[in-house]
């Protein structure tokens, strides 16, 4: 247990440059304290002491501003930076070395009706090892976020995320990373969003503009070809008696 606590403190120090030492983590970081509560509450939850477990996490919520259901499964060296407004649902599964920022929701999208039929159904996300989720992001439903994936700030994720990918936007879409970013995907990036990441909406708009320009060029070429064909065609013979063919004269006329 003490080894796990030491590793968690060290993980916070490594991921937050504002930390000056282990004592600051212990006295001033809500993530550290909410995880102390959750470890106990989760142990009670698995032994079916459900009401006591919920009460402990309610106390933790009042003290830290972080809401974690005692049924959620959380790995080692988990860190919630800033913390306020984070919500983690009952069926959520979180791997090792995962980082969340304030305002993140790991929630479900199942309807509130027929809740009895949903009690033992997987309805919250699964985050694999070393995932980073930026502030305000919403990961909804029983989706799987692959290892080393990054979810940008305020993104809304409702589908599975491939390992080592970066998702931004509403709904979240993968973005193209630079060569240097792809080579350093295992490096920790605050808020899960590289500074030189491209805007997928802007990229789509630019692709559409390129396609429109290409179609206009092809249409102009077709119009020019049709005009050239009309100009090269022989002129139609004018109508009237003067232009009508005369019958050949017969012998003796």
Structure description:
With 253 residues, this protein is of the alpha/beta class. It has one domain: UDP N-Acetylglucosamine Acyltransferase, domain 1 (3 Solenoid). It is built from six helices and 15 strands. It has a six-stranded mixed sheet. A five-stranded parallel sheet has the order 1-4-7-10-13. A four-stranded parallel sheet has the order 2-5-8-11, with no helix packed on it. A hairpin with a 4-residue loop joins β14 and β15 (173-174). The longest helix has 33 residues, at 200-232. It starts with a helix and ends in a 21-residue tail after the last helix. The model has no long low-confidence stretch (mean pLDDT 84).
Question: What labels would you give this structure?
Answer:
single chain; 253 residues; alpha/beta; UDP N-Acetylglucosamine Acyltransferase, domain 1; 6-stranded mixed beta sheet; 5-stranded parallel beta sheet; 6 helices; 36% helix; elongated
Please list the strands of the largest sheet in the order they lie side by side. 3-6-9-12-14-15
Q: Which CATH first-tier class would you pick?
A: Mainly Beta
Tally the beta strands: 15
CATH superfamily descriptor: Hexapeptide repeat proteins
Envelope shape: elongated
The level of helicity is 25-40%
For the report, how would you describe the main beta sheet?
6 strands, mixed
Instruction: Name the CATH architecture.
Output: 3 Solenoid
Mean pLDDT figure: 84
Give the total of domains: 1
Following the backbone from N to C, one meets helices and strands in this order, namely HHHHEEEEEEEEEEEEEEEHH
